[in-house]
Amino acid sequence: MGKMMSSLFRHPSGRIGLVIIGLYLLAAILGTLGLTPHDPLKLFAIDRLKAPSQTYWFGTDLLGRDAFSRLMVGIRQSMLIAFASVAIATIAGTIIGLLSAWWGGIWDGIFMRVMDVLLAFPAILLALLIIAIVGPGTMTSVAAIAIVYTPIFARVVRGPALSLKQRDFVDAARTFGSSQGYVLTRHLLLNLVAPLVVQVTLALAWALLTEAGLSFLGLGTQPPTPSLGLMLAESRNLMTHAPWLMIFPAVTIMLGILGFNLTGDALRDILDPRTQRREA
Amino acid sequence: MSYVVQRLLTFPLILLGVSILVFVAIRLVPGDAITAMLGTEAGLLTPVQRETLAAYFGIDQPIWAQYLRWLTGLFQGDLGISSIYGKPVLTVILERFPLTLQLSLMSMVIALSVGVPLGVLAASRNERPSDLVVRVLAMLGQSTPNFVVGILIIYVLSVFFGFVPAMGTFTPLFTDPLASIAQLIFPAITLGFAFAASVTRISRSAMLDVLSDDYVRTARSKGASPMSVIWHHALPNALIPVVTLSGVEFGYLLGGAVIVEQIFALPGLGRLVLDAITQRDYALVQGTVLFIAFNFLVVNLLVDLAYVALDPRIRIGRR
């Protein structure tokens, strides 16, 4: 792990990506602890629509709330949803993919066809369908994004797991009596860490994007909790008068996604030497 | 079993699964269908009226019987009646589809005409400044959500050019082709932005792969000009992954660009889904979701078949 981090830091885009992720995690932690410059929900009625200044670093919105503090809490909200949903998708997808490959036969057929059905929906549509059933909210966003990405992880795991299953060391382990669980976790799962790490990082970028999209539509995080997508959506009618309300959330969303994309690409370069020279 | 046959056999199976999922999902919505249909007026119904209505819509039957009835309807092109529009769901969908189709095609044209040349340029100047510039741009493009692009475009247009894109209505292509294309050009650029970035990245990496192949070296050593090597020898093979990517992306776009249609107030398929969901028109949600998933599956199937046709090495097993 430490070795991976240091080679990631030596990779040019990995370094930029890590710095961005670090800053976002810092903002998220400070936002959670309430260490924002102002109360993100407090209305400074006389300071409505103020341009960025010493007091309000990124300006204030229509209700006089501090945009910078709201962005920090928005980042926390985005990161929370992204990490929670990707964690669920990784665990569920890995279990499904592993068992599919291990059991094979009819189970493999059933599991993978169910995954195919889920993959038949464009991601945002599946998320919207889930929101239609359960109603919008933070938990719904997490569940929706998790369900969208589970089949992707199942596929990422199943392929390599199938070929690992054929390898001699797995046979050997089974012959001298290792339990199924031991072989699955020790011999299969550990060897799948590399492709999984890359996929997790890229999925985090997509989760951030999807979360921002859902909250932009008003179907993600519900007000008054600040969210990046909603801040951007609210800025639309004010963009000519208060462009800072649009620019900062837009850049915040973009940079966050960029950070995870850069890190994911760098990880792919580092972990898979074949792609080293190709990936942009 | 060959890959093509396997793919064709599982297609109806997956479609059936999709229809079950959509059907069951809509029935999971809390509250009964009659209340959903009539809203507050449902409270005025007598129990007898309720039963009559339930029998009329067939919702007094067990769920599998309802599903079979719905499925039979599907085969006859009957997706039910939309409660928002008071028209058959299929009619509403087909009214919205031309815009989405045209928008998807325009975005794809933009993405390919920007992405392929940039990717080829970057690959032929590997590790030189112009390659790095293209790679940075592509990375940025891929990390920018389309609603951010859309809002920035509207901002730049309105603040610097005093121009507001036409919104709300849509001129069909065959009524007035120029007006129609002009109306969709900014939404198409918005959607084509990230798409172009992916095309750039994939054509660059595919091109680099091909450029190191033996037959390209042969072409070079027999004295073909660098231009001819790139455009005639390498590009056709490098295009295979580009075709796959564009196909899959096109399949996504056909599902309607929910967010971009919302930003530019375009009456396409994406807006329809969103309206159906927010206004709880379940027949419409069910119909549009199924329609979109069907398109998506068909496009993906075609892409896979095209892939096999273009690259005969892939005939057996899954990718």
Automatic annotation (TrEMBL), chain A:
InterPro entries: BP-dependent_transpt_permease, MetI-like, MetI-like_sf. It is found in: Cell membrane. PROSITE patterns: ABC_TM1. GO terms for cellular component: plasma membrane. GO terms for biological process: peptide transport; protein transport; transmembrane transport. SUPFAM superfamilies: MetI-like. The keyword Cell membrane applies. It is a multi-pass membrane protein. Pfam families: BPD_transp_1. Residues 75-264 form the ABC transmembrane type-1 domain. The keyword Lipoprotein does not apply. The chain crosses the membrane at residues 16-35, 79-102, 114-134, 140-157, 188-209, 244-264. Keywords: Cell membrane, Membrane, Peptide transport, Protein transport, Transmembrane, Transmembrane helix, Transport. PANTHER family: D,D-DIPEPTIDE TRANSPORT SYSTEM PERMEASE PROTEIN DDPC-RELATED (PTHR43386:SF1), OLIGOPEPTIDE TRANSPORT SYSTEM PERMEASE PROTEIN APPC (PTHR43386). Belongs to the binding-protein-dependent transport system permease family. This is ABC transporter permease subunit.
Automatic annotation (TrEMBL), chain B:
SUPFAM superfamilies: MetI-like. One of its GO terms (biological process) is transmembrane transport. Keywords: Cell membrane, Membrane, Transmembrane, Transmembrane helix, Transport. It is found in: Cell membrane. The chain crosses the membrane at residues 7-29, 103-123, 144-166, 178-199, 289-310. It is a multi-pass membrane protein. Residues 97-303 form the ABC transmembrane type-1 domain. GO terms for cellular component: plasma membrane. Its main location: membrane. PROSITE patterns: ABC_TM1. Belongs to the binding-protein-dependent transport system permease family. This is ABC transporter permease subunit. It comes from Devosia marina. The lineage of its organism: Bacteria, Pseudomonadati, Pseudomonadota, Alphaproteobacteria, Hyphomicrobiales.
